[in-house]
Write a structure and sequence with these properties.
Radius of gyration: 24 Å
Strand order of the largest sheet: 1-2-3-4
Helix content: 10-25%
Number of helices: 4
Number of strands: 4
Strand content: 5-15%
Low-confidence stretches: 146-160, 165-171
Structural class: alpha+beta
Largest sheet: 4 strands, antiparallel
Distance between the termini: 82 Å
Order of helices and strands: HHHEEEEH
Length: 174
C-alpha cells in the first residue's frame, strides 16, 4: 500500500519476485535510480502502473552438500525459476530436470520437462535461468558433475547393528 501515490485501494502484484528485487523496487518507487551492479529487478512499474510481467520468474537455487551435520542426504544442486504460470528446474551436470504448469497442475504432480508441446516454454525458462546465473557469475553451475549418490543415500557410514545379547551388569568374572 502506498496511498499518496497509488490511492487508498490496495493492489496485488502476481509477478513472483525475489528478495533481492525489493531494494531496486523501493528505489524505483522513490524515483531514485538503481545503482549499477546491484542484483535484482525494479518492479515499481508493476506496482504503480499495473505492468505485470508474468513470464518473468523468481530465481531460486539449492546448493547441495553443505558439510556435516547437514549433508545427511545428498540433494542435487539445482537452479530454477518460478513464473506466474510455470516452475522450471535444471540440475547441475544433468540439465533440464523439472517443468510444471502451475495453473493446470498446482500440486506439481506431472513433470512436463522435455515434452514437445512445452518445448518453447522450456527454452524460454531455460534462457531465464542462464541470464540469472550470468548476472550472479554462476555459469559454472552447468559444468558441475552430477552427484554420485541419489536423493535418499547417506554420506554417513552405516550404523553398526546392536547386539541382541542383554547388557552386562557389573564386571564379568575373570
Amino acid at each position: 500500500r502506498y496511498p499518496e501515490r497509488l490511492g487508498k485501494k490496495g493492489r496485488v502484484v502476481k509477478t513472483p519476485v525475489n528478495s533481492c528485487d525489493i531494494m531496486p523496487t523501493v528505489l524505483g518507487l522513490a524515483g531514485l535510480s538503481v545503482p549499477t551492479g546491484l542484483t535484482g529487478i525494479d518492479f515499481s512499474e508493476a506496482i504503480t502502473q499495473g505492468k505485470e510481467t508474468p513470464e518473468l520468474g523468481a530465481f531460486f537455487a539449492h546448493y547441495g552438500g553443505s558439510g556435516e551435520p547437514f549433508n545427511l542426504v545428498q540433494v542435487r544442486d539445482m537452479r530454477g525459476v518460478r513464473t506466474a504460470c510455470y516452475t522450471y528446474v535444471e540440475s547441475a551436470g544433468e540439465g533440464p530436470w523439472m517443468l510444471f504448469d502451475n495453473a493446470k497442475d498446482p500440486y506439481q504432480m506431472k513433470n512436463l520437462v522435455n515434452s514437445p508441446e512445452y518445448a518453447d516454454i522450456q527454452a524460454g525458462l531455460s534462457a531465464q535461468v542462464r541470464e540469472r546465473l550470468a548476472a550472479v557469475d554462476n555459469l559454472n553451475f552447468y559444468t558441475k558433475q552430477k552427484p554420485e549418490k541419489s536423493v535418499g543415500e547417506s554420506d554417513r557410514p552405516a550404523k553398526k547393528k546392536k547386539s541382541k545379547a542383554p547388557p552386562m551388569l557389573g564386571k564379568p568374572d575373570e
